[in-house]
Amino acid sequence: MSxxxxxxxxxxxxxxxxxxxxxxxxxxxxxxxFIERYVPGVKDxxxxxxxxxxxxxxxxxxxxxxxGGEKIDKLCAHEASTGLIQxxxxxxxxILEVFVHEDEGINDKDLKELAHNRAVQHADNLVxxxxxxxxxxxxxxxxxxxxxxxxxxx
Length: 154
Description:
Blueprint: E1 4-10, H1 17-28, E2 33-39, H2 45-54, E3 60-65, H3 71-91, E4 95-99, H4 108-131
Parallel strand pairs: 1-2, 1-3, 3-4
Helix pairs in contact: 1-4, 2-3
């Protein structure tokens, strides 16, 4: 039985992180079914992700969003993140939150690179979590982050 991966993306994002993630996963795993959903903004991600799990039978979901840089956007991102955590607990299924805050980028080129890298590296995490769970053990304590350079171990 093939695995189903839910991809939920927002129209507010300035880069298609979902497409980058799908491409990265397809490089590593055959026979995966992707189910995509699209929503306006990050606060719409929790219910869409939950529906991907409960109604579409997804084994895991990636939720992509790009909150703006204003104070209200930070609040909305926090609320969305809380909703995604609640959806995970309600469904006992992982939802990988892949947010890139617009003010993380130095300029548009840097922001695009960050969004791409974060999506691809979270896609790699998904492959490990779903298909090679024991492979993550060797990364514990290494200070690995997605999108930017790793912090490294202490």
